[in-house]
Design a protein that fits this description.
Elements (H helix, E strand, L loop, with lengths): L22 H11 L8 H8 L3 H14 L4 H13 L3 H11 L7 H13 L3 H14 L4 H13 L3 H14 L4 H13 L3 H13 L9 H12 L3 H14 L4 H13 L3 H14 L4 H13 L3 H16 L19
Helix pairs in contact: 1-6, 2-3, 3-4, 4-5, 4-6, 5-6, 6-7, 7-8, 8-9, 8-10, 9-10, 10-11, 10-12, 11-12, 12-13, 12-14, 13-14, 14-15, 15-16, 16-17
Length: 328
């Protein structure tokens, strides 16, 4: 019998938000074990594919009242709870199911992803690694392991994982983009730039992923090439207009160019999208002060101080827009 908890104690409560999207990756894994089947779990499986997660949860809860030892039901409920952003409850279901049988590789993907939601990257690493051992040709598992290694500051190991994912799935845009992030952290700026450019090129004339545009624009800005950075950041804004991190980066570029009205507009938008991020209020206050708007500047500095006193976020969120693709 395999312990799912590892080092993390299962307790009740809500999780923190995820730093990188996993639902699309898990939807692919879910397709392998959520095909219509002539059994008692066919109905909750169908509800999941239709996106009716509360109804699926209720149906599985009812089923488990009469079939408490059903590992399949526990694991399926664990997947639903993960999708509902309830990782602690999800892990409890996987622990219960593991008393009957060991989770399969695709089910372990959800276990690992629960730990990502909890920001427990050590345990996420343990279980994603287990999936790559059991299914070495699983490109999504290698990608997820690479993201986990990156969050653990294991950038060289992350490079290995992303390169493995790319070998298994050529033109894997997300893996190429994240490879660029690793090279940036390893101070290999030319390799980072090449990776971001490749991730952009692979998207063709109708790109949908803003992240490579944001990352290339930020890299160019860091290198002092402000004019070249702006088109990439503007494209990122057009692809993901509700991402405060992109507006922040573009605002900082405009500020460096001494274009304060545009910098103000971008940082105001960033603040509106992430009002609990203290650093954004501070940066907007600096813009107001440079424009001679002392009253507005002081308001932003006061908000910054208030948020810092409550230990609110200082880092700007960078949500990754990825729609969940349910299995057909």
């Amino acid at each position: 019998m395999m312990p799912i908890r590892s080092r993390t104690l299962l307790t009740s409560g809500r999780s923190r938000s995820c730093s990188w999207a996993l639902a699309p990756v898990l939807a692919c894994a879910f397709a392998a074990w959520c095909q219509p089947a002539p059994d008692a779990l066919a109905t909750p499986r169908l509800l999941i594919t239709e996106g009716k997660l509360p109804q699926a949860e209720a149906a599985l809860d009812q089923f488990l009242k009469e079939h408490a030892a059903s590992a399949d039901a526990h694991f399926l409920l664990g997947y639903v709870l993960f999708r509902e952003q309830k990782p602690v409850d999800s892990l409890a279901e996987f622990t219960a199911g593991a008393r009957t049988r060991r989770p399969k590789a695709d089910e372990l993907m959800t276990v690992a992803s629960d730990y990502v939601l909890l920001h427990d990257f050590a345990d996420a690493d343990k279980w994603f690694t287990e999936v790559t051992v059991e299914e070495p040709s699983n490109a999504d598992a290698w990608y997820a392991l690479g993201r986990t290694k990156y969050n653990e500051n294991g950038f060289s190991e992350a490079v290995t994982s992303f390169e493995r994912a790319l070998a298994l799935r050529p033109r894997y845009v997300e893996a190429e983009n994240n490879l660029g992030l690793c090279w940036r952290e390893l101070n290999s700026m030319e390799k980072a730039r090449a990776a971001f450019e490749t991730a952009i090129d692979w998207q063709g004339a109708a790109p949908t992923d803003a992240q490579p545009f944001l990352n290339l624009g930020a890299l160019l800005a860091d290198q002092g090439d402000l004019e070249k950075s702006i088109p990439y950041l503007e494209k990122a804004v057009s692809l993901s207009p509700d991402n405060p991190r992109i507006h922040e980066e573009l605002g900082q570029v405009y500020e460096a160019q001494k274009n304060l009205p545009k910098a103000q507009a971008e940082l105001e938008r960033a603040v509106a999208l992430a009002p609990n991020t203290s650093a954004l209020h501070f940066k907007l206050g600096q813009i107001y002060r440079r424009e001679g708007l002392r009253g507005q500047a002081q308001q932003e500095f006061d908000l910054c101080e208030k948020l810092n006193s409550t230990h609110s976020s200082t880092g700007t969120p960078n949500p990754i827009k990825q729609d969940v693709q349910e299995p057909r």
